[in-house]
Amino acid sequence: DHWLAAWKGEGSRHGDFAQHGVVNVRVFQNPEKRNEVGLLVVVADMDAFNTYLMSEEGAKAKAEDGVIDKGMRVYKEVK
After folding, report:
1. pLDDT one-digit tens code per residue, 51-76
2. CB under 8 Å to 28, separation ≥6 — which residues?
3. 35 pLDDT above the threshold of 90
4. CA 22 → CA 8, 41, 46, distances in Å?
């Protein structure tokens, strides 16, 4: 619930991501295991987004939201 709250309302993570190359974010939660959550992120500038994720600012945001780096998975669309 804490993590989901970061994606709702004014000042949400949507704005943070938009500043770092993300053009769209969809938020998901497993209805049976509420602590399992995910994002579908459309990124225009992957280098900018990766730089943000690895930055002090990104680390602070992940810590505030309880994100566990080893639980993160990044996939690239295959066309």
Report:
1. 999 999 999 999 998 888 888 888 88
2. 37, 38, 39, 40
3. no
4. 16, 7, 8
As a whole number of Å, the end-to-end CA separation of the chain is 34
Amino acid at 25: V
DSSP structural state of residue 11: T
* pTM of the predicted structure, to 2 decimals: 0.82
Identify whether the C-beta of residue 75 lies closer than 8 Å to the C-beta of residue 42: no
The DSSP result for 15-72, as a single string, is: HHHHTTTEEEEEEEE-SSSTT-EEEEEEES-HHHHHHHHHSHHHHHHHHHHT--GGG-
